Amino acid sequence: MTPAYREIHHNFFVDNYSPQENVDNDDGSAYYKTHDNFFVYGGNGMKNDFGGHDNNHYNNIYAYVGRAVGFYDAPMLNGHEDHFYNNQVILTGNDVGSITCSGTGTTVMRNNKYYTKEGTVKECGMELKKWQQNNSNNDQGSTSAKYPSDSAVMEWASALLNIH
Asked: Which residues are registered as beta bridge partners of 8?
């Protein structure tokens, strides 16, 4: 039996005392669509380990997170991959995170905008552009640029959450 997707959307999350992540898709968490949220701080944007699968993070803004994605225990099962797409991620470092980089069940990533101090980001141990050139499925459509201003980030959040 497969459950219907549960949705977490249109929230303003601040990770304060234990900055690991705001939504923790682990311990078998499955079938979540986390979208149109504004996340501030945290070690990871999307985190998934210990059997989590079929989780989708999209159309979110992750402001001042250590890494976009943190998967720690094993590759995704083929057909039950996690998806991370159409997100804007302001990183405190320059590494997208620990994703499943090869084999079956690789993490599905695409059309993300990554921002770092230097304007460059690494994914699976390579500069983003080189990683994308290795395989047509590697985070295609994603870009990296230098940090936006704080006021630009707040404008994005206001538009995302429809706050005037």
From this structure: 34
Mapping DSSP to helix (H, G, I), strand (E, B) and coil, where does residue 76 land? coil
pTM: 0.93
CB-CB neighbours of 156 under 10 Å: 16
Residues in the chain, total: 164
CA 74 to CA 103: how far, in whole Å? 11
Asked whether residue 114 is domain-assigned, the answer is yes
- pLDDT for 93 equals 95
Q: Report how many domains make up the chain.
A: 1
Given a cut of 50, the residues of the chain with pLDDT beneath it are none
Structure tokens, 82 = 């996690």
Do the domain assignments include residue 127? yes
Domain enclosing residue 74, as ranges: 6-161
Predicted local confidence at residue 67, as pLDDT: 93
Give the CA angle between residues 115, 120, 124 to the nearest 5°: 100
Report d(CA 49, CA 76) in Å as an integer: 10
**Is 1 domain-assigned?**
no
The predicted-structure confidence for 92-129, as pLDDT tens digits, reads as follows 999 999 888 887 778 899 999 999 999 999 999 999 99
